[in-house]
Write a structure and sequence with these properties.
Number of helices: 3
CATH superfamily of the largest domain: Galactose-binding domain-like
Radius of gyration: 26 Å
Strand content: 35-45%
Shape: elongated
CATH topology of the largest domain: Jelly Rolls
Number of domains: 2
CATH architecture of the largest domain: Sandwich
CATH class of the largest domain: Mainly Beta
Largest sheet: 6 strands, antiparallel
Helix content: 10-25%
Structural class: mainly beta
Strand order of the largest sheet: 2-1-4-9-6-7
Number of strands: 16
Distance between the termini: 79 Å
């Protein structure tokens, strides 16, 4: 009986030691707010969402409805709880990532040519909540970003899994509209507006005809969503953004592209 009583406390000590020495997995219980931007400089906010982890592999498709597949950015913020001690942080991104904790930048691959390379560092943390901000930038090609941390000095290198293949059912769930990269009409050259993602009125030039649109009427239009030559006032059921259901669009008075008009009146077109 005495031997059994001695064995039980010994086992309890071993269990406690294992719990203390085991690394605490990153981001456990955290909530990240992810804000997507449809430009490469975090200036044109688009879709926002919540995620329990920074563990994204978008492949070559847009990260969210209404987003482009190239030249976009994202910010990810969380108030994360840390214990006192050293933490090992590991970041992996294609293309670029930076990480701030309480306003101090500790990881930054912006402009460093480190796409697809893991960055690891050890930071001493004080106990309590800390504000963690991650900035991500995607240019072209494959897009993924991972951030992990563990309590202690060991670190596992995150490896991106292969991008999942979308089912494409319905067809528009993995389709994007065709965007012109250069458009010229009788009312001007709209190439710079396309490149800068700005309103068509910035490129409008009147042809001087009595029945032509004026600047005021162009400024009241919504911004063109799909660029391409068209007939002013023409209606067409079409996609205006990646992975979104087609809607009825109307052609701008500039004849340079399409913007939203309303829901498609009848059936959805096939690609």
């Amino acid at each position: 009986m005495k031997r059994r009583n001695l064995i039980l406390p010994a086992l309890l000590v071993l269990v406690l030691l294992a719990a203390v020495t085991a690394p605490l997995l990153a981001q456990s219980g955290n909530s990240w707010y992810v804000q997507y931007y449809s430009d490469p400089n975090w200036s044109v906010p688009s879709v926002g969402m919540y995620s329990p982890y920074i563990e994204f592999n978008w492949g070559t498709v847009p990260p969210a409805p209404g987003m482009p597949s190239t030249n976009w950015t994202a910010s990810m913020t969380s108030s994360a709880y840390f214990y006192a001690g050293n933490y090992t942080f590991s970041a992996l991104a294609d293309d670029e990532i930076s990480m701030q904790i309480d306003g101090v930048t500790y990881i930054n691959t912006m402009g460093a040519g480190m796409s697809g390379k893991t960055v690891t560092l050890i930071l001493p943390m004080t106990e309590g909540y800390h504000n963690v901000v991650v900035l991500y930038r995607q240019y072209t090609g494959t897009a993924y970003v991972y951030l992990t941390w563990i309590y202690g000095s060991a670190s596992a290198t995150p490896t991106p899994p292969p991008a999942s293949t979308p089912s494409c059912d319905p067809w528009w769930s993995c389709s994007c509209p065709t965007q012109a990269t250069s458009v010229t009409t009788q009312y001007g050259d709209y190439t710079s507006c396309i490149q800068q993602n700005i309103h068509q009125s910035n490129c409008f030039v009147s042809d001087g005809q009595w029945n032509s649109p004026n600047m005021g009427s162009i400024q009241t239009e919504p911004q063109v969503q799909v660029w391409g030559n068209c007939t002013p006032g023409q209606l067409q059921c079409m996609q205006l953004a990646c992975n979104q259901e087609p809607v009825e669009a109307t052609c701008s008075k500039t004849a340079a592209g399409w913007f939203y008009y309303g829901p498609c009146p009848e059936s959805t077109p096939t690609p």
